[in-house]
Design a protein that fits this description.
Keywords: Coiled coil, Proteasome. It comes from Geoglobus ahangari. One of its GO terms (cellular component) is proteasome complex. Helix content is 38%, strand content 22%. The longest helix is centred in the last third of the chain and has 33 residues. The protein has one domain: PAC-like subunit (Rossmann fold), CATH 3.40.50. The relative contact order is 0.17. A hairpin with an 8-residue loop joins strand 6 and strand 7. With 259 residues, it is of the alpha/beta class. Strands 1-3-6-7-2-8-10-9 form an 8-stranded mixed sheet, sandwiched between helices. It has a two-stranded antiparallel ribbon with strand order 4-5. The protein contains 7 helices and 10 strands.
């Protein structure tokens, strides 16, 4: 039977034998920024799936795939064994975040348990920072649970803005770094500025570039660059529509005298 939060280890930590790994969380969120980055890393790195997480706190549904075959919603953790030039990684990806407040805490506790089981020494959570308008040149805002992380993040290009995000960091990206602080694990949240209206590969690319600097990691970003170019075309089309609407509104306003 499925537990409220059901952690299923496909490989034991000692089988994978990671050395002081860094955990990266990239679950669905604003602009899917974090998810795009984490999914990209899973795609381009030589990873192995080590954990599956099922939960009552995911939406009450199944996912229908090719040929009508269904599967349960789940989140997954992948392990990457480095060649020594960058840290070993645990990458948390998946279908959903919790649909309830209580579930967010229970799932975040589960993610921290997995991190501790694998000996994680640092965590980076990834997400989007919605600004409510189209962003031509996205940048990365940071939040940390340890003052010692501020300077390294600044050197990697992360900006710190007092009191931002004003409403706090909601969901896994925020709770994980908060709970990690209580467990004595250094953690930071990297948020790419985004409109919040659409999936944003351009913002994801900005976050990935910062993350690569922090981890001394070199990976191809070609896929994200292509998707970012497609998004730029879409933004240009939206701007044309907005400008046309604005001109029409001004024209109608000028003709108001004749009505």
């Amino acid at each position: 039977m499925l537990k409220r939060v059901d952690i299923r280890y496909l490989k034991k930590p000692e089988e994978v034998n990671l050395k002081d790994p860094v955990m990266i969380e990239g679950l669905p969120g604003i602009g899917h920024v974090g998810k795009l980055v984490a999914d990209h890393l899973v795609k381009v790195l030589d990873v192995v799936k080590v954990v599956e997480i099922y939960s009552h706190h995911f939406p009450p549904q199944v996912i229908v795939e090719k040929d009508g075959l269904i599967r349960m919603p789940k989140n997954e953790v992948y392990a990457y064994k480095s060649d020594g030039t960058s840290p070993d990684l645990l990458i948390l990806v998946g279908d959903y975040q919790s649909i309830s407040n209580e579930g967010h805490f229970e799932l975040a506790n589960a993610y921290l348990k997995i991190a501790k089981d694998f000996g994680v020494k640092r965590i980076y959570t990834l997400g989007g920072y919605g600004v409510g308008r189209l962003v031509e040149h996205p940048y990365v805002i940071g939040a940390v649970n340890s003052e010692s992380l501020i300077e390294p993040l600044k050197k990697a290009g992360v900006k710190f803005e007092d009191g931002e995000p004003a409403g706090g960091i909601i969901g896994a990206a925020g709770l994980i770094i908060g709970l990690a602080m209580l467990e004595g694990i250094e953690a930071a949240c990297l948020m790419g500025t985004t409109s919040g209206y659409m999936v944003d590969p351009k913002s994801a690319k900005a976050v990935l570039e910062v993350l690569m600097k922090l981890l001394n990691l070199k990976v191809s970003i070609e896929d994200l660059e292509e998707r970012a170019k497609e998004m730029e075309k879409l933004i240009a089309q939206i701007k044309e529509i907005q400008e046309a609407q604005a001109m029409q509104w001004r024209s109608e306003e000028d003709l108001g005298y004749f009505r």
